[in-house]
Design brief:
Layout (H helix, E strand, L loop, with lengths): L5 H33 L7 H22 L1 H5 L4 H24 L2 H8 L1 H13 L6 H18 L11 H20 L5 H22 L6 H27 L2 H4 L6 H13 L5 H20 L3 H10 L2
Helix pairs in contact: 1-10, 1-12, 1-14, 2-4, 2-9, 2-10, 4-8, 4-9, 5-8, 5-12, 6-8, 7-13, 8-10, 9-10
């Protein structure tokens, strides 16, 4: 078999670089959104906050939905979109509860396990190849996460399961994005996701509704807008780049979460957190070095199309 042309190799590398940028930028927006949820003073239930977040986001999709309704109605991926909406609703609700009950740094760190789970899932379900160095680097990142968790007693409570279970849901959701993006556009996927989560969370919101003041409404609206942009970025990232390649870039949420915790809430990370963070960054560096070869990027791209 003849080796791929340099132009094709360049295109494959560019796809992955764009996807990595989308993931890192989405990490910044996620950290901002998490901080807003963590800092809410009014005791809003996870069901109500999810309903408002998804519902406000869905309102922004209505003008596009009216113009492109045939594309939305004719998609053959309705079953996959339904699964993604269910998993997304569960994952978001668990994350909201975690942010309300645990320190911001703990939630951010525990949620990093989704990167490892996504990589494993991509290898299992999409047959994406993993080099030994990539596996070793992901394990190194996992060790870093464990070091971060060691000194914090709160992570050993039952509440610590919330972000871990949320990470499982987000990993599954990322793999579903890879499936539906082969046929449907980003806008179709986002419309089904936000609409489905709005419907699923409506009964829980009704049963636990509390009135909000003007400031709370402004914060919730900001959370909803950030969530829409993040979902758009994630869908585009996983549509154009390898899921296994993108997974390590989720580790960017760790330093961002720590910085937001320090600035907004005065949560100073311990030396254990700093040491674990160094290992996480080291794992990302090893993965980047292992994937520097453009032919490997092309192979990953070809395996997912």
């Amino acid at each position: 078999m003849n080796p791929p042309s340099n132009n094709t190799q360049h295109t494959a590398a560019l796809w992955n670089k764009k996807g990595a940028f989308f993931i890192v930028f989405s990490a910044l927006l996620v950290s901002t959104s998490n901080a807003l949820v963590h800092g809410l003073k009014t005791p809003i239930s996870a069901g109500q906050l999810l309903f408002l977040k998804a519902g406000i986001g869905f309102l922004f999709c209505i003008p596009w939905l009216i113009r492109h309704w045939p594309n939305v109605a004719r998609t053959p991926n309705k079953r996959w979109h339904t699964k993604k909406a269910i998993i997304g609703a569960i994952g978001n609700a668990l994350l909201i509860m975690a942010l309300q009950k645990l320190p911001l740094a703990d939630v951010t760190t525990l949620s990093l396990t989704s990167a490892i789970l996504t990589t494993l899932g991509a290898a299992m379900f999409f047959k994406e190849a993993l080099r030994p160095s990539t596996i070793a680097a992901l394990l190194l990142g996992g060790v870093g996460v464990c070091i971060v968790l060691k000194p914090s007693m709160t992570v050993f409570s039952w509440n610590a399961l919330l972000p871990l279970m949320s990470a499982v849901c987000y990993s599954a959701s990322s793999l579903f994005v890879k499936k539906v993006s082969l046929i449907d556009s980003t806008e179709v996927s986002l419309t089904y996701l936000l609409g489905g989560m709005t419907l699923l969370s409506a009964p829980f919101a009704y049963c636990s509704w509390v009135p909000l003041n003007a400031w709370d409404w402004a914060v919730v609206a900001a959370i909803a807008c950030l969530y829409c942009v993040v979902q758009w970025l994630l869908i585009y990232a996983y549509a154009y780049a390898s899921a296994a390649f993108l997974a390590p870039f989720k580790f960017a949420r760790f330093p961002l979460g720590c910085v937001f915790g320090i600035i907004w809430f005065g949560e100073i990370p311990s030396w254990y957190v700093i040491g674990g963070g160094v290992l996480i960054f080291a794992s990302c560096s090893v993965i980047q070095y292992a994937r520097h070869d453009p032919s490997y990027l092309l192979k990953q791209r070809s395996a997912t199309t």
